[in-house]
Amino acid sequence: MKLFLKGLLLTGLLGITLMSQATVLMKPNPVPGAEYPPLLQGDYLDNITTPEDFLGFDVGQKTATPAQINALVKRWATESDRVKLVEYAQSYEGRALHYLVISSSENIQTLDTIKSNISTLSQPAKLSDNKIEQLLTDTPATAWMAYSIHGNESSGADSALALIYHLLASKDADNKKMLDELLVIVDPMMNPDGRARFTKQLQQNRSTAPNFDVQSLLHSGVWPFGRTNHYHFDLNRDFYYAVNPESRGRIKAINDWNPLLMIDGHEMGALDNFLFGPPREPINEHIADSINRWSKVFAQDQASAFDKKSWPYYTGEWFENLYPGYSNYAEYRGSIHILYEQARTAEDGVRLRNGTIRSYKKSVHHQFYSALANLDTLQKNRKAIFSDYIKNRKSHIDRNSKYADQSFVVLANNNRSRVQQFLDLMDIQGIKYYRNEQPLKVRDVTDQLGQVSKNKTVPVNSIIIPNRQYNAPLIAAILEFDANIKDSVLLEERQKTLRDGSSVMYDSTAWNLTMMYGLSAWQVGQHLSGGLAEHQALKSQFNDMENAIAYLIDGADDASVSVAARLLEQDINVRVLDKPGLYNKIDFARGTVAITQADNSHKSGWLETLKRVAEETGAEVQAINQGLGDGDLPDIGSEHFQLLRRPQIAMLTQNGISPYDYGHIWHLIDTQLGVRHSHLAQEMISNADLRAYNVLVVPGRWYGELSKGTLKAVENWVNNGGTLIVTGSSVTQFAKAKDFIQTKLLDDSFENIQEYNLALTRQWLSEQEKISNDNVLDSHKVADSIWYPWQNSKELKPMDKKQLTQWSQWTEAFMPSGALLATRTDQKHWLTYGVDRILPVLTDNAPLLMTKSVTGAVVRYGVHVDNDDAKERMIGWSTVPKGNDLSLRMSGLLWPEAAQRIANAAYLTRERKGNGQVILFANSPNFRGATKGTARLLLNAMIYGPGLGSRAPLQL
User: Fold this and answer.
1) Fold of 541-643
2) Euclidean distance between CA atoms 837 and 102, whole angstroms
3) Nearest CA among 830, 820, 945, 794 for reference residue 890
4) Which CATH class is domain 51-396?
5) Tens-place pLDDT, residues 817-841
6) Which is it for strands 884-887 and 863-866: parallel, antiparallel or unpaired?
7) Model confidence over 797-810: pLDDT tens digits?
8) What is the required cofactor set for this protein (predicted)?
């Protein structure tokens, strides 16, 4: 015992000694950049806390955490009469997002009046010239200064602290004059959750000696990195999808203030220098000419400021402005937008190619200095910029405007929840919409397949959005079916594609909101205004009745899946109708969710639970007391009402998996379904007990693949009854794995290409809706000849394997960076509940799936369009039947080579494997949380898969 105590004492003393040594060893050396001059120089007020006093280090010396930033701006709001602090949102992790309105104390005291005047000027049509002139004289110009929307692009937020302090505390006469004439709104930290993740990684990866190597973890970070928010959304792609609370709050705030200038502080590659606007082509045609002109004025002034410091910089080059979902969305509302891209610098500094060390403080200084230069330009040109803004706003509602004779129609449908989500976006963006209470005859109509009609009738209760509004450029940018791309841009893109496979397109070339949402819509070449009514928000409804035998939620509504998921979670029995039904004279679509008295009478409180879930999901619940389906439609006790099983969902994550795809699916489960699920580290799967789950989702990946052991464990689990769902690039490994599934990739199918073409033809023939007795029952003789799908193969001259391989290698180079394509869906398959026959799918260079099963291709690329003059012909590997054209492109850039390559391949496949099933999505089905049509397919797969696709339950 004594020996034990002695040993314990020695161990303790040794531990203290080692800890003391470790403390000395871990004491950090001075951070490079300590010798860099303070950013804040000048005469400042004594009563405003300096950043250094609060943070414990000079601003820009280190990276401030979200908690420090929020605490400091709150402190400043109590110390200065030049500021008003507003919390505009909270992140998913509960962190506050603020903006600070900074101006002279006199302006802050009359802020409500100024805001009202700005709003009045934003709707100038009814204002006299004298009134406009008076308001222009009296109203400060507003600048919105936004920083670090990507959490690991940290210098912007730290520069915001310098900017805020300087504006609040400087005694300089020029600063006072600027604050008399401007409202400077600073949004210092647009992504606090991502920044928190990033600053924690900085802390975890610091060493005692400074590290200048851009490849080290200190600089690169670790999965899932700090760029994205809690659900791994890129918030700089969310400015009109508005999926996340950070975006929704910010958009509303920006729209309330109608800023004339918006800057957005970013970072880019560590070995670069500094980029700012204006952008290069392609530039969206709905950005006003005056904004493009003013962008060049700001750039000239900013360049002159940088020249005085001998700092390197460049403009444009890789930065284009076609996609309207960045922060530059404000340009479509009249703001001048300037992007900053500072080369990424971690706290230790970066060794550049010329051998010099760029400190973090210098990076922060670049952003701080740029903001002052831009504010100076705005101040000098305040009245002229304001005048152009008002002129543009007036022109948007002019009868001679290019937007005057254009309207958008979202056709009436029964997907209540998805329509309401669409209308919520219109509300956030300040876009006016209406509904037609009577059928409405319209002319000059273009549908989403590009088909033009002289006259059509709009169904009752469709959504009408006339484009003759103040926000006409924004409406056109997000609702027009195609963004115009100049011939010169197409030529350059084609040249780059052929030369080295590069691109001038920085993001997707298609983003039409109705297509992304899977809502059928028309463009109408006239201003629709007469006979329209206000559209009322759709609310949950619970339509009960005496002697109810069942409660139904129409399958056309996405909320039906949400209700089913939450009820199954509560151990309530749920059924789904696999074909249309008619009960109590009410039509119900296939996929309708049914909760019957017979299934649940033994469960207490089930009806109250149903009512609560309906309220939570916004669903419309209809009670019925008639179980007999009208006509030959299914009865309540028939096999067409299939009993579901509770899904127990797991999703693979961690290294190699795309944080975006993973996060978007995670967000869908949490927000749309609201059910428990598990996230599994992929490297641990071979040692995990997968019997706890009956659904396993494998998101797309950035790099690497699953180990052989993991693949084998997943295969055994599927054979025992699991539903495996694989998305995006992860599909490739499963399609190539030996004997895992029958579905193949396009390039691996050429050996037996005729079999795939035969399955394609059988599927098309099985969907034909007419047949004649003359050719079947009225003929008693054996036919001399019959038609075979392959009989014209020699005449059509299909390519052989060598030719197909060469064709594939050539066409693959032209695959899109993001285009919306038309697909045809199998309307008899349970995976397509709530999805129209024609479904827009956002596609890039994704795997192209091939199956020999007629029922295995649930969604195929291309829609058959009648053309009596069209002959049977080959497109690539596949046959297009006589009397048909194949329509594919809906929106975005799709080269003819890529169209031919993609045509008739499958986007979504499903096949049985053992007692389980494998479901493959060729691309991310919930891209940026906005592809609602394909997201519905994923919801069906996760919630209905265990009950409708697996033959045997797993042992749980």
Assistant:
1) Alpha-Beta Plaits (3.30.70)
2) 53
3) 820
4) alpha beta
5) 999 999 999 999 999 999 999 999 9
6) antiparallel
7) 788 999 999 999 99
8) Zn(2+)
